[in-house]
Amino acid sequence: MNDIKRKHNGNIEELAERILTSRNAVIFTGAGMSTESGLSDFRSKDGIWNVEDPMELATASAMRGNYDKFHAFYAARFEQMGDAVPNAGHRIVADLESRGLARCVITQNIDGLHSEAGSKNVYELHGSVGAVRCMECGKSSTRRDFIDRKPCAVCGGKLRPGVVLFGENLPVDVLQASFDASEASDVFIVLGSSLQVSPANQMPGAAKRNGAYVAICNRDITIMDSLADYRTSEGIGDFMTKLEALLD
Ligand code: ZN
Fold it and tell me: What domains are there in the chain, each with its CATH number?
């Protein structure tokens, strides 16, 4: 904590000032954004990846070779996500966009909670829980049908989640739009990401190189902390509530 404070001279008032004079603030979110909605993150001590082996389950080869286990894993996660509701952080992020203070949200999350909270311009780098489709013909279907293990209504094929699995590429158009928005941003705010996954973790750097003010709110240290003009490890709900109060 002391190290963090010494390194970064910015403060939340300065961040608020930058947002108020900004035209292109971008918000980037990771799994930590949704822990306050009761969803597990991945890489922390109690995270999903410490209970399940992602290389065994969340892969394109598991989907093809071991559909039963693959399906059980995602069906359980999708049930959990279906019950989750947006938290204060999601709501404030949506509010910033509707007030014209933020241009878009780039998210690593698949839970759809930004859209549910009212964010309109959301770039979902890893796809979305709401986007189920047929493995064979690509026809779109519903989250419920996937959980219930219904076959594709058109060809009878198996359904798959519309999320990016290990071994699959990120959607090119979403990735390009995210980098474009990052490079054009004048304020770049990271919420709840450990910034370990490439290429998404290059976005704060892309923003910084073009002169953006970079703020990082994450419980644990991140490898991009040295880029940050403002850095905090407090909870996202608390941080965003304080920030919002300064934007009146
Ligand atoms: Zn089909």
Answer: 1-38+86-128+170-248 (3.40.50.1220), 40-83+130-162 (3.30.1600.10)
pLDDT at 213 over 80: yes
For residue 92, the surrounding DSSP H or E stretch is helix 88-98
Crossing angle between the packed helical segments 88-98 and 236-245, to the nearest 10 degrees: 40
- Rounded to the nearest 10°, the torsion over CA 148, 151, 154, 157 is 140
Q: What is the largest CA-CA distance in the chain?
A: 60
Of 8, 71, 114, 126, catalytic:
126
Question: Separation of 66 CA from ligand 1 center, angstroms?
Answer: 19
The pLDDT value given to residue 80:
82
Distance CA 195, CA 25 (A): 19
Residue written as tokens 């996937």? Answer: 146
Ligand 1 centroid to residue 141 C-alpha, Å? 9
Please indicate whether residue 90 is annotated as part of the active site. no
Q: How far is the CA of 52 from the centre of ligand 1 (A)?
A: 29
CA of 139 to the centre of ligand 1 (A): 5
DSSP state of 34: G
Written as six digits, the tokens of 8 are: 């970064």
- Going 34 to 40 to 43 to 46, the CA torsion angle's sign is positive
* 3 pLDDT above the threshold of 50: no
Percent of the chain with pLDDT strictly greater than 70: 91
